[in-house]
Amino acid sequence: xPELSILxxxxxxxxxxLCSFLQLSTCPEPFLVRFCSWLLALSPDLSYTSxxxxxxxxxxxxxxxxxxxxxxxxxxxxxSFCSKYSHPFCRVLVAAxxxxxxxxxxxxxxxxxxxxxxxxxxxxxxxLSQVLEVxxxxxxxxxxxxxxxxxxxxxxxxxxxxxxxxxxxxxAFATSLSFAKLVTAVLTVYQSQVS
Length: 195
What we know:
Elements: H1 12-22, H2 29-41, H3 48-64, H4 72-99, H5 105-117, H6 121-133, H7 141-149, H8 156-169, H9 177-189
Helix pairs in contact: 1-3, 2-4, 3-4, 4-5, 4-6, 5-7, 6-8, 7-9
């Protein structure tokens, strides 16, 4: 709808107010899918800040409250939004999931699925750097495994940080099969760069 062009002319506070007025954080999921398809057609593209605000308003509450796998509609909306605005999405949503003290299983599974199937290579690197910024736990290992499964070329400094983190954390994960698989994956995927 032509009215959506207003999203490009709102200040951040106006956009937050508009989202609140439209109750986007609680709108029915079928409408969420339609709204995200409209966002993809928007020209010009949303600014980074506007996309980050929309990611927060549309998805943050829904994803953090997941106690079972996301619905087909929610997954379609997430995939659609990620296809165009994956960087702001990761900055807002993936960061929140990683910093949640409980690190819910459904949220971690969702991040893994998005890493494996939706995110652009630069966003996969962003997810990796976000994981390496928080204390490593058994629950976060699948996210690292999903990142390595993409077999993306990593910048040397990010690969160095990954290897250093794994070396430092090894004693804490001495009995973890997941950690052993992760180290094996790093040595397999990046064997020419790891000595």
